[in-house]
Amino acid sequence: IIHFIISSYFAQAASLISLAGHNVCITLQNKQETALDLAHWYVLQRTRAPFERFRDGLRSLGVLDALQTYPLQMKCLFVKSEYHYDFVFFYLIVENDVSLEDILVFCTGCDSIPALGFSPKPSLEFVTNCRFPVANTCENILRIPVHAVYTTFKSDMDFAIRNSPGFGRA
Fold it and tell me: Can you tell me which residues form the catalytic site (predicted)?
């Protein structure tokens, strides 16, 4: 039985070594180099073709260019967030008590996008140390509070944005 198990492992190792194209006689002196070569092949080379097909598929749909141009904005599509950042996107999409113009005024002080764009470009930060959103209209930064429950997030966002008019519009 032991002989059978050992020969089975040798057969599997020999098959892996053959697939990797490793044609060097394995000795005690080159075992480390052989192990590194096999690990490199197993992790990188073996997966190259599927990875390239995946990359080509993303490129054909225009997603790869968007990922390279807007990596932070696209991250939410591929990485599960621990802070429920998707609340922000859901908040903007669903019908709510504030308009996109209200949000723009809250964030930037402007009720429309300037002809030459914003300078600096608006940015979004997520904070855990406050309940309500905070905007810095000079730097065009909106600091969004992290909540565990969407209804609380929506209520606090609506309250802050609805109760902030009067600062002035640019």
Answer: 138 (glycyl thioester intermediate)
